[in-house]
Write a structure and sequence with these properties.
Shape: elongated
Strand content: under 5%
Helix content: over 70%
Number of strands: 0
Structural class: mainly alpha
Length: 207
Amino acid sequence: GLRPRDESRLRLAEAYAAIGLPEEADAVLHTLIGEAFDDDDEVRARAWFRIEQIAARDGQHTRVIEAHDHLGAGLPADLAGEAHALAGISALSLRAYPQAGGFFRSVPKSSRAAPLGLYGQAQALSGLGDAFTASTILKNLIESRSLFDPVRSRVIEHAHAALGLQLIEQGRYDEAIAELGQVGTGSPAYETALFGVAWALRKSDEQ
């Protein structure tokens, strides 16, 4: 486990980040990394993970991946899923699709981030032009819906939207509208779904 002093520094860095002082947080974390003992793999990994989280919040995608590359093997399993997912999202943003796919495939199936890992794999494959496999992953993700997993439910809303947009590109407009209609009005993906429905209707009228 972590020593109380190390835990306090991690919490201090998180507090700095929460109030909009990422540079101060970064300084605390790099000090912690520099002072860690040679066998303190977990301390260094947790500090790099915090750096990765802060960079992700600030949209610094290259820095997210750089921090992720420093994690090593010391990060506890319960944090590894989120770490891989954050790196995958940044790689997608940088259009580094092969790298993104690798990060998302590394998300453990037992992790709370597992649904995001599957969704990210589909997005990476779509970016590489493999729409068929991407659609298969999205369909499997949608079929795994669980009333007891709110994270999975939120990701599935995005999966419905992504699959709907893929169906539009394939000219399957009625199926697309039905798929997009599965996105709830309170979902962050709702605006994307509305756009998709309008796009599908327009393309259908052009036929």
